[in-house]
Design a protein that fits this description.
mainly beta; elongated
Length: 69
């Protein structure tokens, strides 16, 4: 049994996001937006390639609107 001589690459990811939630009694509006991987070097398998919009290298914007009634 041998010992590892080198370290593997350190992967990290910093995301930012904002969520707005408004309650209308029995109805709920939820808005979310942000940037995935604003700073970092996540592994390639964590990067989704089917988005058409990329900022910088692998920085991806995201957003969603949900309305529950």
């Amino acid at each position: 049994m041998g010992f590892r001589q080198t370290r593997g690459e350190f992967n990290y990811r910093i995301d930012i996001g904002y969520t707005f939630k408004k309650d209308f009694g029995d109805k709920l509006l939820l808005l979310r937006c942000g940037l995935y991987n604003l700073l970092g070097n996540p592994p390639e398998e964590d990067i989704v390639d089917f988005y058409s919009v990329h900022l910088l290298e692998n920085c991806l914007p995201y957003g969603s609107i949900s309305f529950k009634f």
